[in-house]
Specification:
By secondary structure, the chain is α+β, with helices and mostly antiparallel strands. The chain contains three helices and six strands, in the order βββαββαβα. The strands form two sheets. The protein has a four-stranded antiparallel beta sheet, with helices on one face. Strands 4-5 form a two-stranded antiparallel ribbon. β2 and β3 form a beta hairpin. The longest helix is centred in the middle third of the chain and has 14 residues. It is globular, with a radius of gyration of 13 Å.
Length: 104
């Protein structure tokens, strides 16, 4: 299980576990609650570009990208993580979407 620590004190773990009581932690919980209804958040594969796929909270590659994107939108950052992005972890649908958009 990987973790990500955000500058506001929020900690996120593989599987969509969010610790913290900050507004950002609450925002992440609201976003992730949609997963229970099959309406989870999207992960934008490239900021300021088209191309997003559904978040799979068990996939660390997607979770890492999603957390960094969400934190940046709130003016926050990830200051510590146990996950090192690895291209081999990229889900096939992400690679396909990047190819479709001419980004891979």
């Amino acid at each position: 299980m990987a973790y990500w620590k955000v500058t506001d004190g929020t900690v996120i773990y593989t599987g969509a576990l969010v610790e913290g009581s900050s507004p950002f932690a609450q925002h992440l919980r609201r976003e992730l609650f949609g997963l229970t209804r099959g309406e989870g958040p999207l992960v934008w594969l490239m900021q300021d570009r088209d191309g997003a796929i559904d978040l799979d909270p068990q996939n660390n590659w997607l979770l890492d990208l999603w957390i960094h994107n969400e934190a940046a939108l709130e003016g926050l950052g990830v200051y510590e993580t146990s996950y090192a992005p690895n291209p081999a972890d990229m889900p096939p649908q992400a690679a396909q979407r990047l190819r479709e958009k001419g980004l891979a």
